[in-house]
Each structure stands twice: as C-alpha cells, then as structure tokens.
Design goal:
The chain is an alpha+beta fold and about 1450 residues long. It contains 46 helices and 37 strands. The strands form eight sheets. Strands 8, 9, 10, 11, 12, 13, 14, 15, 16, 17 and 18 form an eleven-stranded mixed beta sheet that branches.
Length: about 1450
C-alpha cells in the first residue's frame, strides 16, 4: 500500500524544544492512502467504496508501519539538530530560520551526491569556506583555464567544473543547503534502520584531486627567479633634488591567446628620493622576462651618477672639480667677492674678508670653503677651492706646509731644518736681487761667488727662507646656515639661503646660495640660465648689504659700496666671423643664384679650397653636424647647384667633383655630378648614370631613385633580359647586406622594363612582364624596409600588388612596410589577403597577421592616434545643457521600410543633438556608409559600434575582405571619412560617451555555458581565431586602452550585445542565450564608471535601472517586430540635464504626456478671514482667469479646517507622527490654499504678473495672512472632479538629501514605490499619485522663479512634491493605512531629510485638467524629412 508523506520542518539549533512543538514532523493523509490501496486491490470497484472511517484511520496510525516512520523522523531530526549545533559553534554567522524549509530551492540537487566531498570541505564548513573552495577549484577547472590542453582533458575538466558549480549552488544558498542536509540525514538513518550502508554516487573528490595537483606541481616546480641588475646612469641633479625616471624595456611574456612568448614593452616608473645614496637601487619583483622552467625575473635598476662638468660626488658631499682662479694682486684687496657654480639649479655667491690681505710674502695661496647643507643631502657639504695668485711661483720652490689664516694670527712654525736648501736659498736671493750680478752659475773658483754662496748658506738665511715659505697660506673655512631660507616669487620658484662662518673669532665669510629645484631638470636648463641672468646681478650688488650679520663685517665707510665691483680683467671677445655660408643658403632660397655664388666663393677662399684641379686638397677641420660632412664639401656642393641653376654645367661638375674628394661617402655631390653631366650630354651621360647610381647606393631616397630610373630608361631603353640579369645582381647584393647597392640595381632593372601603359595597350592583351615587374618592386620594397625608408617601401609594395595582385610575397612585403609605417589596420588587410591566397599555411603571412592583431588592440597606429586627437576635444568645453543624446539599435538600413523611416527623421530638430547607434546598422559596407551618411545629416554627432550583421561578409565582399577583422577596420575607416565617432569623446562639459566593442559568449547561457558545435549563427562571419572562445576576448581587449583613461562626470557607454544576464531578449530561437551577450561588457562598463548603458541585439525595448546603472535598448528592428499602426520612435537617454529613458518622436516632437502642465500652489495662515475678504480674493482670481488664457484657479479653505475632514486628518497625522521631529501638524497651521494650473510657462508668467493678481489678490492676501508657503512644479496627476463625492488634492512637500539625485538609487526606489501605489488593485480608479521635483522642465525652482518674475522663494527649502488626487478623503486615509504606503514611506526615509518634517496640505478639488500639456499647433510647412 502506498502512502503520501509531507515532511516540512524548520528548526533553529539554539531553540530545538520550541520549534519541535511548532512543527509537524509527519503529516499523513489517510484517505488518500486508503484510496490508493483500494485502487490497487479492487480496480474499478473501488470507486463505489466510501472514504476511510475514523476507526480505520486510528488503526492505521497505530500500525507498526506508522510507528516506524515516526521513529525514523525523530532520529533524523535529532541528528540534523546536532549538525546545526556544530555549525553554530564553528560559524557564528550561521542563523537557521523557520522559513528555510519553505523557501524554493536555488538548485535542483541530487541528494545521492556528497557535495562536501566535491568541494573538499567538511559538513560544518562556513559559507566563506564554501566560496573559498569554489574559487580555488575554479582556477583549475574553469574552461578559460584549460586553453592549450587536449580536447579530452578539456572535456574532463568541463565535466568536473559542472559538478563543482552544482555543489556551490547547493551549499552557498542557506535554505537549499539545510534542505539538502536534512534529506541526506534522513536517508542515512533510513539505511541504518534497515541494516544497510548508505551508498553515494561516484563524484569528484576535491581533496584527492588537489593532492595529485600538488604532487604534480612539485614535480614541475620552477626554479627560483633570477635578479637581473641593470646599471642606469642618471644626472647628478636627480640625486640632489630627487626626480622621476621612466625606463622602457623589452621583455619576453607568455602569449595567453596564441601561445609562445612575445615581446612586450614594459614601462618602469621609479621615483628617486632627494639625497639618494650613490648606487641607489630599485627592485621590481617578478616583472622581467618570463621563462618556461624558471620564475619570472626580478628587475633591479642600479642608479649611478653621470659625470658632471662642475662638481663630483664624494659620499654626501659635492666637491668642485677645479679650483677657481681669483686673479693677481689679492693682497691689496681687503674683501673677496666671487661666485661659483654647483649642480644645475644651484648657484653660490661668496663674499667676505680676505684672509690674505696685507700678508707679506708668499707665492700663492688657496682658500677652501666647506658650505654645510649644500651637498647631495642636508648632511653633506659643498666643497669649493679658490686659487689666490699673490705672485708667480719660481722654479725650484717647494710646496709649503701652509699657514693657518682662519683666525688672522701669525704663521705657524715648522719644525726641523730642511736638507739640501742651497737651491731654495739661491732662488730666494735671485728673486729679490740679492745674489751676485754674474749669477750662481759662474765658476766656483770666483771668490765673490763663493762669498755669496757662503752667506746664503748661513743659518740665519736658512731660517728666514723657511719663515717665508711658511707664509704661503692655506685657509680652510666652514660655513653653516645663518638664516632661514627666503622664497622668491619667481617662475620657476626659487629660494635664497645665507651661510656664514659662525665660530667666534673666525674670519668673516658669507655665501648666498640661489636654489631652484625645478631648474635641476634637464628641460629646465633654459629657465635656469634666464633666472641666473636676472637675479644674480642684483644679488651681487645688494644682497649682502641686506643681511645685518654681513654688514657688521664691513667698516662704516664701506657699508654703502657695492660688494661686487666692476671687473676689468675680463677679456673682450673677438668679433664673430662673417656667416658666408648662411648668407649663401638664404640667397639660394630666394632664387638669387649669382649672389649665392659670390657668398659661397668668399667662404671657399676662407677655407683655402681654391686649389688647381689635380692637386691634393688642403687639410680641413673635423666634420661637424649630425651628418659628419666637412663644411668645405657642403659649400662646394651648394655652389655646384648654383652653377647648375645658372646653366654653367661644366663648372658645376668641377665643384661637385671637388666636394666628392672631400666627402666621398656623401650622396649629394654625386647627385650634383649626375645632374650636370647629364645636361652636358655625350659621354657625360654615362658618367651621369654611374653618379646617380652611386648617389642611390649612398642615400636611397625617393628623389635619387626616381631620377636614376628616369635617366636609365632614357639611356638604355627597354631591355627585359638586362632586367632579369639586374634582378639576380640585386638579389646577390641583398644577400651580402649591400642594401643601397641593391636598391640601385633594382631601380636599373625596373627602368629597363616597358611602361605598363605601353606594354598593355589593348585591354585583352596581358602584360608579359607583370610577374618580373612585381618581383622587382617587391624586392626593392624589402630593401627599403631594411633601410627604414618606410614611405618608399609602401609605394613599391603597392606598385608590386598592382602589377601582380596574386603574388603572395608582394602582399607580405606591402604588409611589412605598412606595419613598420605604423599602419596596423592596412597591414593586417594585406597579410590576411596573402594568407587567403596561399594554398598552404604561409608562415610569414601568419606571423604578420598575429603581430597586427596584437598591435591593433593597443590603438597606437597613425590613423587611431589622429582619430583620437581630432575627435576627442571637439566638445570638451561645450556648455552643459546644449545637447541631448538619443539612442537606436538594430536599424537594418538595407531594408527598404527602415531606410524610409531613417529618411523621415526631421532634418532640423536634432541638429544640436547626439545619436548613439548600438550596432546592426546594415550588412554590407556600402549600406553602412549610406546609413551613416544619412544619420550624420540628421544629428550633430553620431557614435557607432558594430554588431554581428556588420561583421558578416556578403557575397559581393568576398574578394575585398579576407575576414571579418579586415572588414571591421574598413568600416572604421569609413567612419573616419564620414566624421562618425567610434572612440570615446566628451559631448559637453561633464558628459562622455564610451563605445565598447563586443561579441557574444556561450558562457552567457547559465544552463549550458558551452558553445554549440552545430550552431549556424553568423555563418557568414570569418574570423582568424576561434569564433567561440577567442572573438569575444579579442573584442573586449580592444576596449582596454580606453578603459585605462580617466573619465570625469557622467559616462554613457554602449555596446551591441547584452552586458548582463537578466535583460530581456528574444528567446524564441534555439540556444538564443548563447549568442546574445557577454558578461565582460558589464565588468568593463562598471570599471569605466558608466551611469547608463545602451545595448542592442535583443530586439526588445527596455529601459530600467539595475544596481545603480540604467540599461536602455531601443531597437528599430524589422517591420514584423512592430505592432501594426505603431509609430517607431527614438529613445532619449540624456535630456541635457539628467539621464533618462524617454521615447521621442522622429519628427522632433515629444510624445503625448511628456510635457506637463505647471501647478502653482500657495498656502496662507488666514485665521479669522472674514467672508468679505474671501469674496474679494475670489473675485480677483476670477479676473485673473478671465484675462489670462490657459489658466485655471481655485482658492478655498483647506480640507483640514472643515468639519468631518479634520478628524480624518488627525488620524493621518497620528500615523505620520514619526516624520516630524518637532511634532508639528502636517499642515503647519495653514488655513487656505490657492491652486493654479497653467498650460505652459508663458501662461503661468502672465497670470502671476497681471494686475489682478499682483495688485488685487497678492496685496490683500499679504495683509490678512501671517505667513504663506508657495511652490511651483509640474502637474503630476490628472485632476477630475465631475461625479466625485468629495474630490481632494493632497500635496506633500519634502526636502531631499543633498546626495539624492534623479540618477541615485534612493530616488529611483522612491519612484518605484510611487508607481506601486498607482498599480494597487484595491485603490485602482479611486486615487492617483505622482512625484515631481520643484521647478519645471530643465529649470530648477530658483531658475523658474526668475523666469516667471516671482518676487521671492517661499518654498521653505523643499525640493519635491508628492501629489495625490483622491475621489474622497476616506480613500486617502485607506492609502495611508495600507502596506503599500508603509513601503513608500520607508523609501522616503532613505531619500529625504526629516530634520524639518513634512509639509502636507489637502485642497478641495474644483477643476479638471490633464497632467499632459496640450500639444501646440505646428506652423504651416514641414521639414524636408517630413516631405520625404
């Protein structure tokens, strides 16, 4: 007999007893079971038997079977409760709920599979441990992580990943996990009660798998990384001031898309701190070359200081490389004034007392200054040396031991007598005229000489000589900071620091250091020179006199004298030489060739180049300039050109030959010889051919090559056999590395072929030399590429393709030239065509395609850079609010009805606006061009991205585009020609549009995230990569360059395919989810900070906010997609002020209901208003309504002041008491209200400014009211009072928080709850509500007051109004007491400020008006688009 059991249990581990009583362990339907037994025994006869009686039911419940079932449930629940207790002890966050067993399952699990074993965790693991285990296993078994493995391994990993994913879905959802745990516990208890062992299905075991992976990893463990040290020499100024160093280095990285290793340029950015030690190093761990069997290298950059012209580094000190010579006669100067240079950005001015003043004797002295704080860092010092020339040092004088002049005292004595002093004594006597007249070199037999010699060798004379030598001084002074640094308001900024000798009794010496860290940069050298030229002279004249400590060192009479007197010892510079060559160049440029010859001749005479022909040229100075050509060769070559212009070709040849003798490796004189010799004719033409050939060999420029080709064609004529021989010679020159010679030979061969026009005069006669011509052009293009003459290489490559379009080598050479010329898109087209032409795999073409694919994602080609620079800054400073943004997708312009609709868009209504086209514009490139041209005429700017239809290659495009990537870039080139944007760009201040390239991924299908091998979608698309696994990755890679840029303000992104799951799409086709979207788009748009995303492809109109981002889709689609008689529209996504998703007519007119009427509400405290004044106020308003068109007005007592409604309003206030912290009444004591509904702002302005309102109503109301409240807003609801019992208009005014805007999550939740009230079935037709911001249209409330010329703002800071139109007060009370109102109020708590509470008024409704403003009458005539 079969029984039906419903197990429903939900017990918290902390309260088992309470929950046991509140749950039904087993609920048995005995009547159902009895009927099933009857059917089994009696068949059709069971229908005649009645239900089970009460006695039979009791016997069945007391049966052994039921007792066994109850015992089974009791034991199962006991074990399950123990499990929950263990989980609670291990995971404090675990909180079981009663509702867990009633919740729907997140995943349809298989209870016979142990999901804990699948994830490798225990039964009591926390949710964090579940997520961690899933992520860890996903890194190994996810399909994206198995690329490069065999198909069998990939299939096995996919199956394992599905088990892991199912386990995660089951265990990550708490209710599903508890239901799964209870069912497994019950099965276990059931098996044990029957004496059996519970058997689980065989499944993946994560623990064993990870153990195997660890063992395998140990076997394949890579060697440790190596540290690659690179020596980086930098300027000494970077060590002193600090700075930034950018280092570009090529490294080998693994290509994750195609495998192998590729070269990648890595930019290392290092900030060098000020005062860094010598050989300072910066390490970048594992950022070097990647290796197969070794960890990634660690880069270590060791910085060393370059040699400096002025100073050198010694630890933290800076030492002057050379001593500064201060000139002769210093002993007569009491003060020293000089200057010295340090590193760039530092200059020292020195002034002080001369330590050698009035010091007798001495040949020379040296002053050494050590300025502390001016070294590499603040601890170091700047060490300077100054040579003081007190007299010339005589031959034979020895070095002195030095005298301490620091304190101005007497000389220090030297100990010991000097040996061999005779030479020194002789020198002393000779210097001062005390020696013999005949000198000391006379014969020793001379008596007088002997007497002098004896006198010179006497002890007294020796002591005197030694004392003199001791007076040759050495003065060492230490200067330290004497005052705080003084900043100067210069550009670049700089500062002054004073240093002095601070020790008592020390010789007074001062140094003033001018420091400018910005000038220490390499680019600041010019600024530093200008700064010194302007500041140093006035500082020399007055700076030291401004410091009190420096003035104290001066005698009183000298205090007014300048510290730096004029220096008369500076030698005058010789006058500059006459620039004859420059004058000749200028005359040549003017066309004055005779004058140029005269100037060049003067320079030739100065260089001594007027030698006879056949003589050896005189020696010339070393070559100067970047070309290393002697100046004489340049002058002679230029004069040769002048003579050629004047028609004197013989002299021109002679000058050119002399220039060749001076510079035989310079190509220009060879070209001069060729030009002049060709004009001479005769044998000179043979010399001309040889000269031009030599010129091409030395410099294969386009001009030389063209000239050589012309004269060879004229000289030799057509010679096909000679062209074949020349081709072989050129090939041999290429193999030997003589590239210039190869170009010359190939040029000669090309010139010997007949012109293409002559060789194929008849249309049906092919060119017999086409192949040879193509090979010659192709080979010469290869030579040009190796010579880095890419322009010439591109020209030759194109000529080769024109001559023989089917030559694969020509396509490859052209692709290589274009690639080197930074034209990646065009290069890819040529490489892919070569690959398409080859029957077998062509290695060079394949490699070229791969390189182009890698380069194209970086968008660094010349066309991409030009596109970004020319389009990005167009509207960067366009005022906000002057443009709108509309969106369309799936236009399918190649369908006749869609093309007609696009042409019907108004020609004038959108000329200031922007259109987003989110893909699927058309199939063929011709149709795409026509569609973009039409749309560009309608809108100011058009942003466009491609869809899957654009990537399909039609039958007519097979010969033009080898694959879809080539067509993609052809479409991009078409957009550049038409001025259509495909790159991100601002459209006004603070608003940027970001196009995203995209393709669909099968992982978008959650149920089956694997490609369908039998799918025929987009079969006309041809890709050079895996269409299922690599195309969407490549498209996402195209966006990464733009995602790295910072975008400020509002970002509107768009793509063709769906960015996230959950968006609606047409699911009628089989496996449609595999071909509609890609999750990477969502990641990219959120990384860019997008606030609104437009997409296509779904063919479903949509506009809503999800997780802080608005998603919009407005497909034009096919005619069958639209209901009959439905007008096709655009979608406005930005109205100039805020983001929105509003449909808009193609005629430029908004849809009915978009433009609202204006509601002006004003409330007064008129306690004790007399009936007479009330009639006067109403009469004034009647005159306003009679004189102003489009206006309706009512003025009456508020409902809160009337009997019957007052009690109801008190109940409402009790419900809403928590909304006011001040516990004030909602109506704040206001008694009367004015409501004015105007069709537009013009009608509102006229009503508020007419005499009847301003002078009659307003003045009287001000006199009888104590205060008033006024606000203007759009009318949010329709007003109807006919056939209503007590129609009322309730206005609730509120103030939003500062951070709550129309795009914020809080405001959208409030709008959502407002819509929920309108859709409430219980109140349907009796009440309508609306939420509107104060203001009108694009005008804020303050701007609106200025527009209508209102005197003041009386809105009390309110920002929004919640409008309620109720049939009677009881309906509003029912709304306030409903759950829907509570949810609306909860949303309000998150969006509005409650510090001042709400202000609410109830007005009797005595007029009817729709919220939508009446549509204005169009003027006669229509636009060109409507006429079409």
């Amino acid at each position: 007999q079969r029984a039906k059991f419903c197990i429903a249990s939900s017990v918290a581990a902390s309260e088992p007893e309470r929950l046991r009583g509140s749950m039904s362990v087993t609920a048995y339907d005995s009547s159902f079971s009895f009927r099933q037994g009857q059917v089994a025994r009696l068949g059709e006869k069971a229908a005649s038997r009645g239900p089970m009686s009460e006695e039979e039911r009791k016997r069945f419940e007391a049966s052994p079977f039921m007792q066994k079932m109850r015992d089974l449930d009791e034991r199962s629940w006991q074990k399950f409760s123990e499990r929950d207790k263990k989980r609670k002890e291990r995971d404090p966050k675990f909180a079981p709920k009663d509702s867990d067993f009633q919740a729907p399952k997140a995943h349809k699990y298989d209870k016979s599979i142990n999901y804990y074993t699948v994830l490798g965790i225990d039964d009591c693991a926390s949710n964090d441990e579940v997520k961690k285990a899933y992520r860890k296993l996903s890194l190994t078994y996810h399909p994206d992580k198995t690329t490069g493995k065999s198909q069998e391994e990939r299939d096995e990993a996919a199956a394992i990943f599905m088990e892991i994913k199912n386990a995660y879905k089951t265990l990550s959802d708490e209710p599903t996990r508890r239901q799964y745990d209870y069912e497994r516990e019950r099965d276990l208890v059931s098996a044990e009660s029957n004496g059996k062992k519970k058997q689980d299905k065989a499944s993946f075991n994560a623990a064993e798998a990870m153990k195997k992976l660890l063992e395998k990893a140990k076997e394949n463990q890579k060697l440790p990384a190596q540290v690659v040290s690179l020596r980086v020499p930098i300027r000494l100024e970077k060590f002193v001031f600090g700075g930034h160093k950018k280092i570009l280095r090529e490294r080998k990285v693994k290509d994750r898309m195609y495998g192998g290793y590729v070269d990648d340029t890595r930019t290392f950015r290092i900030d060098i701190p000020p005062g860094a030690e010598d050989k300072w190093a910066a390490e970048f761990r594992r950022q070097g070359d990647q290796h197969e069997h070794r960890e990634t290298d660690t880069m270590k950059f060791v910085f060393e200081a370059k040699s400096h012209a002025t100073v050198e580094r010694s630890g933290s000190d800076l030492r002057a490389r050379f001593a500064v010579n201060l000139g002769e006669g210093l002993r007569r100067q009491p003060y020293i004034a000089t200057e010295a240079s340090s590193v760039n950005g530092r200059h020292v001015i020195i002034w002080g007392r001369n330590p050698f003043f009035n010091v007798a004797g001495g040949a020379a002295a040296e002053l050494r200054l050590r300025i502390h704080g001016e070294g590499v860092d603040r601890k170091g010092a700047l060490c300077l040396r100054f040579r003081l020339g007190l007299g010339s040092v005589q031959e034979g004088e020895s070095e002195s031991q030095g005298r301490d002049l620091t304190r101005g005292g007497s000389s220090s004595s030297t100990a010991g007598a000097l040996s061999n002093n005779t030479i020194a004594v002789k020198a002393f006597l000779t210097k001062f005229g005390l020696g013999p007249s005949h000198g000391f070199d006379a014969a020793s037999g001379d008596a007088a000489a002997q007497r002098h010699s004896v006198a010179a060798a006497s002890p007294a004379m020796l002591r005197r000589c030694q004392r003199r030598r001791g007076q040759e001084g050495l003065c060492e002074l230490d200067l330290r900071v004497a005052s705080e640094a003084v900043g100067l308001a210069t550009k670049p900024h700089c500062s002054l620091q004073l240093y002095s000798t601070q020790a008592e009794g020390t010789m007074p010496m001062f140094a003033l250091c001018l420091t400018s860290p910005p000038c220490g940069k390499k680019s600041g050298a010019g600024d530093w020179d200008r700064l010194k030229a302007r500041l140093v002279p006035p500082l020399q004249a007055s700076a030291f006199h401004l410091f009190r400590i420096a003035r104290a060192a001066l005698p009183r009479p000298l205090a007014a004298a300048p510290a730096f007197p004029e220096r008369s010892f500076l030698e005058a510079k010789p006058p500059p030489a006459m620039p004859w060559k420059r004058l000749g160049d200028e005359a040549f440029g003017r066309g004055d060739f005779w004058q140029a010859v005269a100037y060049y001749t003067r320079r030739v005479e100065e260089l001594g180049l007027n030698y006879a022909e056949g003589e050896e040229p005189p020696a010339q100075e070393a070559p100067r300039g970047p070309d290393l050509v002697p100046e004489g060769a340049k002058v002679l070559s230029n004069r040769s050109a002048c003579f050629a212009k004047l028609g004197d070709f013989a002299v021109s040849v002679a000058d050119a030959r002399r220039a060749i003798a001076l510079a035989p490796r310079w190509s220009r004189p060879w070209g001069r010889v060729g030009n002049a010799a060709w004009q001479l004719g005769g044998e000179g033409r043979t010399e001309a051919v040889a000269a031009y050939r030599k010129a091409v060999e030395l410099e294969p420029s386009r001009a030389n090559v063209t000239k050589l080709q012309e004269i060879v064609a004229l000289q030799d004529g057509v010679n096909a056999d000679g062209a074949h021989r020349a081709k072989e010679e050129g090939n041999e020159a290429m193999r030997s590395g003589q590239l210039g010679l190869a170009v010359a030979i190939y040029t000669t061969a090309i010139a010997q072929l007949p012109l293409q026009a002559d060789s194929a005069a008849a249309a049906d006669k092919p060119d017999p030399h086409a192949l040879l011509r193509a090979v010659l052009f192709s080979n010469r293009a290869g030579a040009f590429i190796r010579l880095r003459n890419f322009d010439a290489a591109v020209t030759d490559g194109r000529d080769a393709v024109v001559a023989q379009p089917g030559l694969i080598s020509a396509r490859c050479q052209l692709g290589a030239a274009l690639l080197a010329h930074n034209m990646h898109q065009e290069a890819y087209a040529e490489f892919s065509k070569a690959l398409h032409l080859s029957q077998e795999e062509h290695g060079k073409a394949r490699k070229g395609c791969n390189v182009c694919l890698q380069e194209m994602v970086k968008w660094r080609s010349a066309s991409a850079v030009l596109r970004f620079q020319s389009r990005f800054f167009l509207d960067l400073h366009r005022p906000r609010g002057t443009t709108r943004v509309f969106a369309l997708s799936d236009i399918h312009f190649d369908h006749r009805e869609n093309e007609d609709w696009v042409h019907s868009i108004d020609d004038n209504a959108f000329q200031d606006d922007v259109l987003i086209v989110a893909g699927n514009l058309a199939d063929s490139k011709v149709a795409i061009g026509r569609g973009l041209t039409t749309l560009k005429q309608k809108f100011r700017r058009v942003f466009y991205t491609v869809g899957n239809h654009e990537m399909s290659i039609t039958h007519a495009e097979h010969a033009r585009y080898p694959d879809s990537i080539a067509k993609l870039h052809a479409v991009i080139a078409e957009c550049d020609e038409l001025g259509v944007d495909i790159f991100p760009a601002p459209i006004c201040e603070g608003v940027t549009i970001l196009p995203l390239f995209s393709w669909y991924s099968a992982e978008f299908d959650e149920k089956d995230p694997f490609p369908d091998p039998n799918s025929t979608r987009d079969k006309h698309c041809k890709w050079p990569m895996d269409a299922d696994l690599q195309v969407w990755k490549y498209m996402a890679k195209l966006n990464e360059t733009f995602l790295a840029k910072p975008y400020l303000g509002t970002v509107i992104s768009f793509s063709h395919f769906l960015p996230r799951k959950g968006l609606p799409f047409d699911a009628s086709r089989k496996n449609a989810a595999k071909a509609v979207g890609c999750d990477v788009i969502e990641e990219q748009l959120r990384a860019a900070g997008s606030k609104l995303h437009v997409y296509g492809h779904s063919r479903n109109k949509f506009g809503s906010m999800l997780q802080g981002v608005r998603y919009a889709n407005m497909p034009l689609g096919f005619e069958s997609d639209w209901p009959k008689d439905t007008e096709r529209r655009l979608m406005m996504v930005y109205d100039g002020k805020n983001l929105c998703t509003q449909e808009w007519g193609a005629d430029g007119e908004p849809p009915l209901g978009y433009v609202k009427r204006a509601l002006y509400a004003e409330f007064f405290q008129m306690t004790g208003l007399t009936e007479t004044n009330l009639r006067r106020l109403r009469a004034a308003l009647q005159r306003v309504g009679a004189t102003c068109k489009g206006v309706q007005l009512t003025f009456d007592m508020l409902r809160t002041e009337r009997e019957g409604f007052r009690e109801l309003w008190a109940d409402v206030e009790k419900v809403e008491a928590g909304w006011s912290q001040h516990k004030q009444a909602l109506s704040r004591g206001f008694t009367h209200g004015l409501s004015l509904v105007a069709d537009d702002l013009t009608a509102l302005r006229s009503a508020l400014n007419c005499d009847a309102f301003k002078h009659d109503f307003a003045k009287l109301a001000a006199s009888v009211s104590r205060s008033h409240f006024a606000a203007t807003m759009p009318l949010g609801v329709d007003l109807k009072h006919e056939r209503k019992k007590e129609p009322s208009l309730i206005l609730v005014f509120m103030r939003a928080k500062i951070d709550v805007t129309q795009d914020s999550k809080e405001y959208n939740q409030l709008v959502k709850m407002t819509d929920a009230i309108n859709s409430n079935d219980s109140l349907q037709g009796m009440i309508s509500v609306g939420l509107q911001p104060l203001g009108f249209g694009k005008l804020s409330h303050k701007e609106l007051l200025k527009e209508v010329e209102a005197p003041e703002d009386c809105s009390n800071g309110c920002t929004h109004c919640f409008t309620v139109s109720a049939d009677n007060p009881a309906v509003f009370k029912a709304l306030v007491q409903s759950k829907t109102w509570k949810r609306w109020r909860d949303a309000c708590d998150q969006a509005i400020r409650k510090d001042q509470g709400l202000v609410a008024f109830a007005i009797p409704l005595e007029m009817s008006a729709t919220a939508s403003a009446p549509k204005p009458e169009r003027k006669n005539g229509s636009s060109a688009g409507q006429k079409r």
